Amino acid sequence: LDVPDYPLRFSCGFLSGSVTAFATQWLHNTTLYAGRLAAVEEPVGAPYYTRASLMTAWNEMGPRMVWANYPQRMCLIAGAVGLMNMVDIFHRPDLIFVKGCR
Questions:
Q1: How far apart are CA 93 and CA 14, in angstroms?
Q2: Per-residue pLDDT tens for 6-19?
Q3: How far apart are CA 73 and CA 102, in angstroms?
C-alpha cells in the first residue's frame, strides 16, 4: 500500500498529538485548579499548590479529571503537531522516520 507522503506525515503527527494530549490532560486540569487556588489566595499548599490542586481537582471532578475538556484540547494539540510534522519545521530529512521505513 503506497500512501502519499504529506497525508501520511500529517496523520502520524495527528495521532501522536492525540496521544500526547490525552496523556497530559490530567496535568492540564490540575494546573487549572492550581491557578484558581492561587487566584483566590488559598493558604493551603501555597505557593506551588502541587498536592492541593491535585486533591481539589479529584474531589470536584473525580475520574473525569483525566478526560474532561479533552476533545477541544486534542483538536488544538493534534492539529498543530500534525501540521508541524507535515511541513517539516526542522528541515532535517535524516530525522523523518517515515522515509527511513521504506
A1: 19
A2: 888 899 999 999 99
A3: 33
Q: How far is CA 68 from the centre of its chain?
A: 13
* Ramachandran category for residue 88: left, alpha or beta (phi over 0 → left; psi -120 to 50 → alpha): left
What span, in angstroms and rounded, lies between the C-alpha atoms of 8 and 62? 37
Q: pLDDT for 17-32, tens place per residue?
A: 999 999 999 999 999 9
* Phi/psi-derived region of residue 17, left when phi > 0, alpha when psi is between -120 and 50, beta in every other case: alpha
**Which one-letter amino acid corresponds to residue 44?**
V
Distance (Å, rounded) from C-alpha 65 to C-alpha 96?
Answer: 35
Residue 8 CB neighbour total at 10 angstroms = 15
* Residue 43 φ/ψ, nearest 5 degrees: -75, -30
Q: How far apart are CA 35 and CA 29, in angstroms?
A: 10
Q: In angstroms, rounded to a whole number, what is the distance separating the alpha carbons of residues 102 and 87?
A: 19
